[in-house]
Amino acid sequence: MDLSRRRFMILGASAATLAAIPFAGATAAGAAELVSPAEALKRLKLGNTRSANGNLVAKNYSPLGSTPAKGQKPFAAILSCGDSRVNPDNIFDTAPGNLFVVRNAGNVCEDVGLGSLEFAAAALGVSLIVVLGHTHCGAVVASENSIKTGELPPTHLDAFVERIIPGIENLPPGHTTNDAIATNATYQASRVENRSSIISGITSTGKLGIVSGVYGLASGRVTWL
Ligand SMILES: [Zn+2]
Questions:
Q1: How far is the CA of 30 from the centre of ligand 1 (A)?
Q2: Cα 224 to Cα 146: distance, rounded to the nearest angstrom
Q3: Rounded distance between C-alpha atoms, residue 44 and residue 53, angstroms
Q4: Whole-angstrom distance, CA of residue 155 vs CA of residue 118
Q5: What is the CA 53 to chain-centroid distance, rounded?
Q6: What residues form the membrane-spanning segments (predicted)?
Q7: Measured in angstroms, how far is the CA atom of residue 90 from the centroid of ligand 1?
Q8: What is the pTM (predicted TM-score) of this model?
Q9: Ligand 1 centroid, distance to 6 Cα (angstroms)
Q10: Residue 193 Cα, ligand 1 centroid: separation in angstroms?
Q11: How far is the CA of 137 from the centre of ligand 1 (A)?
Q12: CB 221 within 8 A of CB 34
């Protein structure tokens, strides 16, 4: 099958069809654990409370033998900023295999990341997608600066700035940077659902939820939006 034909077929596939595509080496291992979106969110909230309170459960990040190579079954996907102070596994006190994480500056919904989230939802069966902003986000500050100056940053820095600006440019005068950070998180979450028929198709069944939140660098706590 040539690539163009193959691409057409994938683009035309329903969520159910895509879920059946055998992504070699990456599909769920064994019987899938059924976790509702509400249960997935509850796990993340409990994990964040442990993390913020300094009660992290010890986890093994050393090579785990042959079992993980048979597949993965994460219960949630996270779209977070690439900020070095933001570590989803630590924030939610999760173990290897629990979270499918997509990261970039400003936790923006762009094509490769969106395709990755589609993969997590349709092929791996995550129950929840979390768009996670954070306080003191430089990508949002840069976007606010571009709105003020009317100029985009050079080279490829504009790639995330121009995807943040539409969500925050109509905030009322006097808004805070934290307002813009929260608005960006909810805006990017809406883009994840609105731009992906695969993801919106699964959310309509109730098997997948999409939420957004802001991680506080100082508190260690996620404020859910
Ligand atoms: Zn950031």
A1: 36
A2: 27
A3: 14
A4: 28
A5: 24
A6: none
A7: 16
A8: 0.86
A9: 36
A10: 21
A11: 4
A12: no
DSSP letters spanning 54-108:
T-PPP---S---SGGGG----SEEEEEE--TT--HHHHTT--TTSEEEEEETT--
* Residues surrounding ion ligand 1 at CB below 5 Å: 81, 83, 137, 139
**Cα of 139 from ligand 1 centre, angstroms:** 5
Give distance in angstroms: CA of 62 to centre of ligand 1: 28
What are the boundaries of each domain within the chain? 34-56+70-224
18 CA to centre of ligand 1 in angstroms: 32
User: Which two structure tokens, joined as six digits, stand for 143?
Assistant: 């976007």
Greater confidence (20 vs 168) lies with 168
pLDDT for 193-209, tens place per residue?
Answer: 999 999 999 999 999 99
**CA atoms lying within 13 Å on the CB side of residue 53:** 8
Helix (H) or strand (E) holding 197, with range, is: helix 197-203
Distance of CA 138 from the midpoint of ligand 1 (Å): 5
- The model's pLDDT over 124-161, given as tens digits with 9 standing for 90+, comes to 999 999 999 999 999 999 999 999 999 999 999 999 99
CA of 187 to the centre of ligand 1 (A): 15
Contact at 8 Å (CB) between 27 and 20? no
d(CA 19, CA 2): 22
- Tokens describing residue 200: 């919106």
Which top CATH class is 34-56+70-224?
A: alpha beta
How far apart (Å, rounded) are the C-alpha atoms in residues 161 and 73? 33
Ligand 1 midpoint to CA 78 (Å): 14
